[in-house]
Amino acid sequence: MFEAITKPETLHLMYRVAFAAGLLVAAGIAIRGRIAATNGGIVPDEGMSLRNVFEVIVEALTSLARDNMGPEWKKWFPFVGTMFFFILISNLMGLIPNVGGATSNVNTTTAWAIISYGLFNYVGIREHGWKYIIKYMGPSFGDVHLFGKHLHVRALAPLFLILEIPLDFARIITLSIRLLANMFADHTVVSVFLLMLPYGIPAIFLGLGMLVCVLQAFVFSLLTMIYINIALQEAH
């Protein structure tokens, strides 16, 4: 599924990924310094500041996490939050002419999809152990007691295994293609209007493009949260 890219394109992609990661780390250090200052964790900054913007975004993310990841949301929120901010920065970079964002490349979106897939499956295995595979085996049609153990009868397990495992892997494809396609379409539309229309008018489309960038980062993170919640639930 990964796109075959030449060496210059590979280096360009690596630079974009490194730049987005560097911005994320630098912003984190700056905000941490502000919070560590006297009354920094209590009194908000005046006016519009980087810290205030991040606090609004983090508050929205934590609200989503509480609603979609259950009581253990704090344990997995740092992973999802990092994912969101990296994708957001990469999306916004794609709106800058001659720069481009890492999420405009299928290799980046697929890599994040694999990370998301690995994360929620790790959560499920950590929570349920080997019983996690039950989610692929279909519904239970009854119970039997054998050798002192209580077992569920899953007569359709062979059929469900054939169907459910590929469908589960398909989440990687859907996460990757959804993000890639939306970013490609968004950046293409913005670029076309920047080239065709006079100055001033493209600002409207640039604003809409920024909104799409934020929404797609939220959608990717929200789906990851939902998958984690599903993984935490016990199969029946």
Architecture blueprint of SSEs:
Elements: H1 7-36, H2 50-69, H3 73-93, H4 106-128, E1 143-146, E2 149-152, H5 157-196, H6 202-232
Antiparallel strand pairs: 1-2
Helix pairs in contact: 1-3, 2-3, 2-6, 3-6, 4-5, 4-6, 5-6
Summary keywords:
236 residues; mainly alpha; two-stranded antiparallel sheet; 6 helices; globular
Kindly report the oligomeric state of this protein: single chain
Main beta-sheet strand count, sense and barrel state: 2 strands, antiparallel
The number of distinct structural domains comes to 1
Strand order of the largest sheet: 1-2
Protein described:
The chain is mostly helical and about 240 residues long. It has one domain (about 5-230). About 70% of the residues lie in helices and about 5% in strands. The protein has six helices and two strands; from the N terminus they run ααααββαα. The chain has helices at about 5-35, 50-70, 75-95, 105-130, 155-195, 200-230; strands at about 145, 150. The protein has a two-stranded antiparallel sheet. A hairpin with a 2-residue loop joins β1 (about 145) and β2. α4 (about 105-130) runs parallel beside α6. About 20% of the residues are buried. The model has no long low-confidence stretch (mean pLDDT about 80).
